[in-house]
Design brief:
Blueprint: H1 13-16, E1 31-37, E2 43-48, H2 50-53, E3 58-63, H3 64-68, E4 98-99, E5 105-111, H4 114-123, E6 125-130, H5 137-140, E7 155-163, H6 166-172, E8 175-183, E9 195-200, E10 205-209, H7 214-225, E11 232-235, H8 251-263, E12 267-270, H9 273-279, E13 281-282, E14 285-293, E15 299-311, H10 320-328, E16 337-346, E17 352-353, H11 360-378, H12 382-389, E18 398-399, E19 405-406, H13 411-421, H14 424-436, E20 441-449, E21 457-464, E22 470-474, H15 483-495, E23 502-505, H16 523-549, E24 557-560, E25 563-566, E26 572-574, H17 575-582, E27 590-597, E28 604-613, E29 619-629, H18 636-656, E30 684-689, H19 708-725, E31 731-732, H20 736-739
Parallel strand pairs: 1-12, 8-31, 10-11, 13-17, 15-16, 22-23, 29-30
Antiparallel strand pairs: 1-5, 2-4, 2-6, 3-5, 7-16, 8-14, 9-10, 9-12, 14-15, 18-19, 20-28, 21-22, 21-27, 24-25, 25-26, 28-29
Helix pairs in contact: 10-11, 11-12, 11-19, 15-16, 16-17, 18-19
Bound molecules: pterin cytosine dinucleotide (MCN) and molybdenum atom.
Length: 741
């Protein structure tokens, strides 16, 4: 059996030998686009094209008004997951006369090569009449300056998440403490920046696109451009990472499509690193409130306000945060009296989108900081406080105070095991000893409960070809995770054939009829299960073919290890022979497809960080250890890889990554201003998975792991920094100036 083993990634050769194909590598005879971007955060503007049109190689210059003529609908939020009704949503089309953020595209230049396009963009003249802008989320919430006058407010969403009786619980608490917890603005930074090629031949629209959601793109492009979905094909070539940021569309991409429709010629654009940094910002939020707890460490109440920044527009995915963070704040703990006011706030800054973990890192950071605060106030141990509060296994499935149903798990046992396996107590003692010698080292842990495996559905098809090899098409869209390998393992086991016979196909909307995509750590669970289900059906069809060829009843045929066996007579036919028979002209071939509906599942775990801080406040995460229950582990190496990658991003979020915006709304957009961790800053990793796992309801029995470390890592690292320095730290990133001796 392949499942459970660290099978090497099936398609890695091309990546490690430089033969992979990203959008920018595709040889398409296309024109190049470049953008003129606003240099003010809010203002009226006029564009003059004349000089740009004189630049050699420039074919066209388009203003926002011209592009808007091609667009039937604006860019909208993702209504699969959010209900737009309680929201105040500004119409989002190309800026015509008024820009709302620094960096907003306000004109587009099309040229024969990318250098002429850039020169053309530099030659476009723009006159600005600046208007009052509001960059800061807290100021924006006062509504003195409005981002969108027509909305009458900067508060895009306000919702109350109330459970139990928080006032009573606070009044009965032994202790009450105020808390303020937050994450600063981040830049997701996939290795491959955004890229798109659009080709329109008057009938069909073909888009090559660095995306996580080709099928959703197809239906949204249909809605936006008024072209029937059947005539749109979206192809996702190799994608060099997305981390959630390529699950929505940006105006630049729609401009590329609009211009190709207008010109009737292919147009392409690949973001520069600076443009990429402007295109995808994420995760700015602050929680302010009060908690109540008993002297024995039981947390009894959480009350507060959560503010989530939106930037200038509501992107497809940022709508999730204000509605998913609050119900996830209780996390794995028993607290049932909560009152959380959640607000989403427009500012004159780059629109914000989701980033790995999307809502669960925010919720986890809030609740884990709260747990550690209780521990500090009562001088209790971090583990002891958590054990006192964790939901117990006999309460499962547990319905949390906001109605989320936690499927399976044994949180206290996992915590106790994790503490042992990660050698938490030993490391704590070691750190204390080092500190006595004058060193600033610390150890910290944090627990998390994650919601993942989102539906509503996923598609898979299993096709047995004439030579017995198998094509598995999935609606999931791996873009670095290696999930395709794990899915091939599952299918190889289901069909009992060598994995070499299987090819996994995804990311082309013409090749895979429908799909939802890869995000929310859903793919192995939902697309994997769909592939198992379609393979089961394909095997059943093979059995029928085998039975007919042996002139037997289906019930008389047994399948094992690549052979169909007549139970009574002992006759055998091989898998390959049956495949050949299926295409002999006597049989209809073997294809089975499944659209599998699915519901969320809840993995959980405990992660630990070891840090060292020097006298100048420079911190290094030396070790990172993880102990997770992610259901059945299909490929331990792939799952571990996710823990390592997310853990490295957690180091970035905890210590280095801060998207700096000045008062003019200008973002610092080079890696000299925004530090992403490299191999040098990466800790030494040890990752373990619970052997006695708790399964999800999916056929794979698996839960997700694609975001785990970035969900819990920042909380574990910040706790270790507190241990090392004795300071109280409640927001990320923790910069050297806060840690200086
Ligand atoms: N896995 C496993 N056993 C399990 C669970 C998972 O073997 N019980 C393996 C899977 O085979 C897969 C990996 O772990 O290789 C992650 O699977 P899963 O948790 O299902 O997550 P997805 O495949 O849906 O990936 C999405 C997730 C998300 S939401 C973000 S954000 C993220 C992440 O993956 N973006 C990434 N990891 C990334 N890794 C890379 N290289 N690039 C990104 O953009
Ligand atoms: Mo994601």
């Amino acid at each position: 059996s392949y499942s459970g083993k660290s099978v090497k990634r099936l398609y890695d050769d091309k990546f490690v030998t430089g033969r992979s194909t990203y959008v920018d590598d595709l040889k398409v005879n296309a024109l190049y686009a470049a953008f003129v971007r606003s240099t003010v955060p809010h203002g009226r503007f006029k564009v003059s094209k004349e000089d740009a049109l004189k630049v050699k190689g420039v074919i066209a210059v388009y203003t926002g008004s011209e592009l808007n003529q091609i667009i039937k609908e604006g860019i909208g939020p993702w209504t699969t997951y959010i209900d737009p009704r309680p929201w105040k949503i500004p119409k989002w089309k190309f800026a015509e006369h008024e820009t709302k953020y620094n960096g907003e595209p306000i004109a587009m230049v099309i040229a024969t090569d990318k250098y002429s396009a850039r020169d053309g963009a530099d030659a476009v003249n723009v006159d600005y009449e600046t208007m009052d802008a509001v960059i800061d989320m807290e100021r924006a919430s006062k509504n003195e300056i409005l981002v969108h006058k027509e909305l009458g407010t900067n508060i895009g969403y306000e919702g109350n998440f109330n459970a139990g009786d928080v006032e009573k619980a606070l009044a009965n608490a032994d202790r009450r403490v105020e808390v303020e917890i937050g994450n600063n603005r981040l830049i997701p930074s996939p290795m491959e920046p955004r890229g798109i090629i659009s080709q329109y031949d008057g009938i069909n629209l073909t888009i090559w696109y660095s995306t996580q959601i080709p099928h959703f793109a197809r239906s949204e492009f249909s809605r936006i451009f008024g072209i029937p979905e059947s005539r749109i094909r979206v192809i996702m070539p190799d994608v060099g990472g997305g981390f959630g940021s390529k699950a929505h569309f940006i105006p630049e991409e729609l401009a590329v499509i609009a211009s190709s429709i207008k010109l009737g010629r292919p147009v392409r654009w690949t973001a520069t690193r600076t443009e990429e940094m402007m295109a995808t910002n994420s995760r700015h939020n602050v929680f302010k409130g009060e908690i109540g707890f008993k002297n024995d460490g039981t947390l009894v109440a959480i009350k507060g306000t959560l503010d989530v920044e939106l930037g200038a527009y509501l992107t497809y995915t940022e709508g999730l945060q204000p509605t998913i963070i609050p119900p996830m704040i209780p996390g794995p703990y028993k607290v049932r009296d909560l009152a959380i006011k959640s607000r989403a706030i427009y500012t004159n800054t780059i629109p914000i989108t989701m980033y790995r973990g999307a809502s669960r890192p925010e919720a986890t950071f809030i609740i884990e900081r709260i747990m550690s605060t209780v521990a500090d106030e009562l001088k209790m141990d971090d583990v002891e406080v958590r054990l006192r509060n964790l939901v117990k296994e006999e309460q499962m499935p547990y319905v949390n105070p906001f109605g989320l149903k936690y499927d399976t798990g044994d949180y206290p046992t996992l915590l106790k095991e994790g503490v042992k396996v990660m050698e938490y107590n030993k490391m704590k003692e070691w750190a204390a000893e080092e500190r006595r010698k004058g060193k600033r080292v610390g150890v910290g842990l944090a627990f998390y409960l994650e919601i993942c495996g989102f539906g509503p559905y996923e598609f898979a098809e299993t096709r047995v070809t004439e030579d017995g090899s198998v094509i598995v098409s999935i609606g999931g869209t791996p873009h670095g995770q290696g999930t395709e390998t794990a899915i091939a393992q599952l299918v190889a086991d289901e069909l009992q054939i060598p994995i070499e016979k299987i090819k996994v196909v995804w990311g082309d909307s013409d090749a895979v009829p429908s799909g939802t995509g890869t995000y929310g750590s859903r793919t192995l669970a939902i697309a994997g299960s769909a592939a198992v289900a379609s393979s089961r059906q394909a095997l059943e069809k093979m059995r029928k073919v085998a039975a007919r060829s042996m002139k037997a009843d289906v019930e008389e045929i047994e399948y094992r290890n690549g052979e169909f066996v007549h139970k009574k007579e002992g006759k055998k036919v091989t898998w390959d022979a049956v495949a050949r028979e299926a295409y002999s002209g006597r049989e209809p071939g073997v294809t089975a497809s499944v659209t599998l509906e699915g519901d969320v599942t809840f993995p959980y775990g405990v992660h630990m960080a070891v840090v060292e801080v020097d006298d100048y406040g420079i911190a290094k995460v030396k070790e990172y250890r993880a102990y997770d229950d992610i259901g059945r582990v299909i490929n331990p190496a792939l799952a571990e890889g996710q823990v390592h990658g997310g853990g490295t991003q957690a180091v970035g979020q905890a210590l280095y990554e801060l998207a700096i915006i000045n008062e003019n709304g200008q973002l610092a957009v080079t890696y000299a201003d925004y530090f992403v961790p490299t191999a040098v800053e990466a800790p030494k990793f040890k990752s373990y998975f619970a052997e006695k796992y708790h399964p999800s309801a999916y056929l794979t029995k698996s839960k997700g792991v694609g975001e785990a470390s970035l969900i819990v890592g920042p909380a574990a690292i910040v706790r270790a920094l507190e241990d090392a320095t004795g300071k109280r730290l409640n927001k990320t990133p923790v910069l050297p100036e806060e840690l200086i001796k």
